[in-house]
Amino acid sequence: MLNQINGLHHVTSLASSAQENNAFFTKALGLRRVKKTVNFDAPDVYHLYYGNATGTPGTVMTYFPFRNAARGRPGTGEVGTTAFAVPRDALPFWEERLATLGTEGMVRTDRMGEQRLMFRGPDGDGFALVAQDDDRTPWVADVPQDVAIRGFHSADMRLDPRGAAASAELLRFMGYEREASENNVTRLRVPGGNAAQVIDITEVDAAHAAQGAGSVHHVAFSVDNRDKQLEVRKALMDTGYQVTPVIDRDYFWAIYFRTPGGVLFEVATNEPGFDRDEDTAHLGEALKLPRQHEHLRATLERHLEPIHD
């Protein structure tokens, strides 16, 4: 069993509008845009990162906004809900705020003894705010500090019965421990991990999901450094998983592999961080391009959808 994984690093999803996506996360949810760059494999598409003041692993939601992309079809084989942690008494504030903003799909629920507010993002994305004690320092701009989002609480994978069982076994190999079950949900947690160390598996009988705007593309797990990442990669490959070589993503190094349930997993390093090419005070302000795409800057700046902060 592995012991290198700390919990979540980031969650990456698809969107249909960069401007709408940016407004939702920075204005409605009050997160900081910590990086404005482009998709390594499709440089005519942004890669936008939102999190706390410095983009600490375990706080960062990222998006590929494909302009006018069709919505995804929910189903199995995907992360259905991304949950953020907020202070224990913050849900009434968020209910009022999100209702005023016309947010869809709002409903209060209880899971594993925790109160949560479910809601939908601009592309039908599944989100939840979970009330808990959390001492992480939030980004404070449009939302008061005493109710602001602290970072991730969990990612909820929606899987068929076979995928659920196999994925739970994989997560246990990755260092997660089964914590509890409730109805069709099984909760796993990395003991001693970061504050974003929960994965929920919801077992459902449904058709396989079709990716589109509002779908989670992949979920990334945190390791401290490249040495620990290589240990994880070797262990996964020794177990029979097909894992990519290490890929330099400028702000972290990444490896990817597909889970038995169909969800794409990434293992990302905490180093070097989002301040490697920008001063912390100005994170996310300028368009940063990977070295191999810098020669396209003039073309990309004309093509990419304007983002008005």
Automatic annotation (TrEMBL):
SUPFAM superfamilies: Glyoxalase/Bleomycin resistance protein/Dihydroxybiphenyl dioxygenase (SSF54593). The lineage of its organism: Bacteria, Pseudomonadati, Pseudomonadota, Alphaproteobacteria, Rhodobacterales. Coiled coil: none annotated. InterPro entries: Extradiol_RC_dioxygenase, Glyas_Bleomycin-R_OHBP_Dase, Glyas_Fos-R_dOase_dom, VOC_core. Residues 7-132, 151-270 form the VOC domain. It comes from Sagittula salina. Pfam families: Glyoxalase (PF00903). This is VOC family protein.
